[in-house]
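ok so i was messing around last nite and threw this chain in just to see what happens. nothing serious, just curious
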Amino acid sequence: MLLTLLVALTATATEKPKLVVLELTPGAGVEKTLTAPLTDAITNELQAHGYFDVMSSRDVQALLGMERQRELLGCNDASKSCMTEISGALGARFILSGSLARLGDAWQLTLTTLDSQKAQPLGRATRLARTLEALRTMLPFAVAEATSTPAPPPPSRLLPFTLLGVGAAASLFGIVWGALSLSQEQQLATLLDAGANTPGLLGTRDSYRAQLQNLETQRWVAVGALGAGVAAIIIGAVLLPADGSSAAIAVVPTGNGLGLAGRF
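result:
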């Protein structure tokens, strides 16, 4: 069971601190049509975390109007004075900005949250992925890192580990069973060679035919178990999530200052 403990370091905690999410800046080779959906996904993640009163880029447009928005958001995102001006115009203490860029065949997402009252970054995060879909799966952890808030629990590894264990057991069974079948087949071949030179040593033809059919069945069982085991191991390895570990306790912005948040 996941519980969240929030302890205010100031006298009392009031409303959530306000955070503005600016539109991601497209880097070289990245179209704006790609950054807008990713900005929306980041906004949704922040709202789901629940630590901030989140203002999206659409909220900014509605509050400021197009002309004022162009003046404020058209400045250099790396400028702290520019961020402070945006913060003052929107009444928000924290501003999250970022960029999406292409690095060869990979996508790079960079996020930074600025504390306008202290004029210093609250947190930063950078993620690399081969595809945009893979980058989206990293957003919960990237957003938590950029805002210095606790990350969500990592995905369950029960199914991947179960598949790996079952696959390993099935593969081992297939190898052992196949080795036993091969050993029995070699013993039968030795007996038949000896019976060719020793009259009366061999049994009936039907008994050997039955043994051969049994050995054939055992070989197929061994091959099937080994194949199924290898397939289960591969699927388990593919489903095994990347390490998404996060700190158990983190400093969280509150309306009056900072607080401690953790998962127990």
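not much to say yet. Residues 158-239 form one domain.
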